[in-house]
Amino acid sequence: MSLPDPIRLYGPGYKRDPYPLYERMRAAGPIHRVSFPSGVTAWLVTGHAAAQRTLADPRLGKNHALGNDRWRENASIMPEPQHSQLQVHLLHQDAPKHTAMRRLITDAFAPRRVEELRPRFQEMADALVDAMPADAGSVDLVRCFAARFPFQVLAEVIGLPPHLADRFRRDWGKVVAPVGPTDPGRPAYETRLHELQGYIAEVVADRRAAPGDGLLSRLVTARDAGELTQEELDSMIFQLLVAGQEPVTNQITTAVVALLRQPEALERLRAEPALLPAAVEELLRLDSAFELTTWRFLAEDADLHGTRVPAGDSVIVSLCAANRDPERFPDPDTLDLDRAQGSHMAFGHGSHFCPGATLARIELQVALGTLTARLPGLRLAVPDEELPWIPAVLGRGVGELPVAFDRPACPYRG
């Protein structure tokens, strides 16, 4: 069958502000064929109601084995034979395997447990602010805070010991960005991949030799008991280390940028810290770090929102477009701290709803509460248009966030 020409979902202008394009796409219909810089094409779902139906549609599976040859030709992220070793995690599984694997991690992210850790998270956030140079003129909030706080929290939650946490390199997270076999950056990509695989092997060996009661130790025990294969264990650790902290880093940046663009909202949040939970929900809705979901596939040709989608073509959902659907959220482009909270989709929907959503919410409350309370006069140190939005396919955030502020205040105790 003849397929429509795809809409490009890449480029600096798109990454800086994709919302005008999403608005036009929503107005034209719920599903569109799109393309990414790696050459991958997909069917993108945009509206809120359509997104919810898609993410709960039992016809759509997550296992990459469902992808057709056209998708597989361009979509391979990791070179063989490494491809299988880090790609059989929760995001690429369907029931019953997904259900069994997810059950192994839910206790670690249980709401009561992570809430009990809030004071510890606050200590971490305060220590990072204390370490910021007060007389430097400006600091990169990503390097000094946003890229460090979520990883420290994650290490605490999953039981990654300090001697291993100190050696983790954020640069390894770049292996989630597709790099084609002829791309000049391929050698550096493969170096990162092999280093990350070696690091994961060290984590497994360490937790096997000195087991504790943390999540990583429990996963290693599950592997030894035959509940996981070695590839599944490595993949789950990979997912925890990358997906468990990088999106929160990016969400801190999108939230801070939104607040700096609305100084009155920033000042109100500083004056009324009780607004933090509602503010976090609104900031998640306004500009989600999870811009797009990962791939889903139909096992056979089928109708999806009035469009015939071939079997094995990838289907993705724009969570950002769903979260600014005016049919669900009046005046959706406005940051409204008094907005009646509703079903935003920043953490997805359905069986693949983010298992760490409660943890992420607490992290964001602590992070934004600390930054707004302890950095009076917080402001951008460069023009807004110079902020470097990351070129990631699925995520949103800025790679650097230069800010200036007045002398840090005493530790936040809200």
UniProtKB/TrEMBL annotation:
InterPro entries reported for this sequence: Cyt_P450, Cyt_P450_B, Cyt_P450_CS, Cyt_P450_sf
Keyword tags: Heme, Iron, Metal-binding, Monooxygenase, Oxidoreductase
Pfam families: p450
Record-linked PROSITE patterns: CYTOCHROME_P450
Record field: transmembrane: none
Protein family: Belongs to the cytochrome P450 family.
PANTHER family, sorted: CYTOCHROME P450 YJIB-RELATED (PTHR46696:SF1), P450, PUTATIVE (EUROFUNG)-RELATED (PTHR46696)
Protein name (record): Cytochrome P450
